[in-house]
Amino acid sequence: MMLEHQLPLSDNKKIVHVLNGDALLERFPTTIPGLRIVAREALAEGPLGGNTLKAFFDGRATYLNDKYGAPSSFYYQQTVTEFQRLQGIDKDAQVFLWFEDDVFCQLNCWFVTYLLVHSGHSGSCFVVRPPNHTPYSFGSLDESALLNCFHNKPLLLLDTIQVAQLWQKLSIGDFDAATQCAAILPKEYHFLQSALKAYLEAFPGKGQPGRPKSALIRIVADLKTSDFSSVFREFSNREPIYGYSDLQVMRLLDELKADALI
After folding, report:
1. What is the DSSP string of 106-124?
2. Which of 35, 42, 179, 191 is the most buried (most CB within 10 A)?
3. Please, how many CA atoms are within 13 Å of residue 100, restricted to the half-sphere of its CB?
4. How far lies 208's CA from each of 40, 203, 212, 243, in Å?
5. How confident is the model over 128-172, as pLDDT tens digits?
């Protein structure tokens, strides 16, 4: 459902912006009022399960420490505290989710939506997306363009219940049910469906290493080099829907080398 947002922005406590990272926070227009919360996660990889939120966060902290050497204390200070702030917002606040269309951002967005529903949020929740010419990045937009994303575009009113259900199915590994949840969403959610498809294609199956690793194997062969900067640049060009950082691509390359696949 598409709604043109009209701004009754007098009470900043009733307006919450959830941003997809610190880079956007640093450039976020000062003229847009409201509380700002940053989703500092990378849920496009690693475990998504846990019987409780604490178990979920513990699993994430352990994974990021094992894979990237990120101290668990840093994860709790910088990531969990932001999610706790989100859980504490006014239940009827207007929430604006500033997330791009790629897998990296969408997984974070779905978890944020789940947290809102889990916390009893009852206010409107809108998705603020980049323009069509740069669907996977707010990074190329200046302050004026970011303002246009917020003020001048019809915003998508998120079906938070359905997206939260999608996340729940995904978190327990029920991929068929998650796909069904995405499939029944209206056509305006095409970006979500595309991101879910790409996320699931990242898993190995039928003797294949998964779509991202398969792409990297082809890139190394095509470029005739495993030089990281060249490979990362080409991967970002060929598979922008993943939105992977340099650290994620480097980890995938290291795993391919360890398995003697490149």
Report:
1. HHHHHHHHHHHHHTT--S-
2. 42
3. 23
4. 31, 9, 11, 21
5. 999 988 889 998 899 999 999 998 777 899 999 999 999 999 999
Q: How far apart are CA 231 and CA 253, in angstroms?
A: 9
Q: Amino acid identity, residue 97? A: L
Structure tokens at 131: 């323009």
Q: What is the pLDDT of residues 27-86, one digit of tens each?
A: 999 999 999 999 999 999 999 999 999 999 999 999 999 999 999 999 999 999 999 999
Every domain of the chain and the residues it spans: 7-199, 211-258
In angstroms, what CA-CA distances link 113 with 86, 159, 166, 167? Answer: 10, 9, 10, 8
Alpha-carbon distance 231 to 228, whole Å? 5
As a whole number of angstroms, the distance between CA 145 and CA 242 comes to 23
If one counts every other C-beta atom within 10 angstroms of the C-beta of residue 113, the result is 27
| Whole-prediction pTM | 0.93
pLDDT range class, residue 12, cuts 50, 70, 90:
low
Distance, CA of 113 to CA of 116 (rounded, Å):
5
Is 258 buried (19+), middle (13-18) or exposed (0-12) by CB count in 10 A?
A: exposed
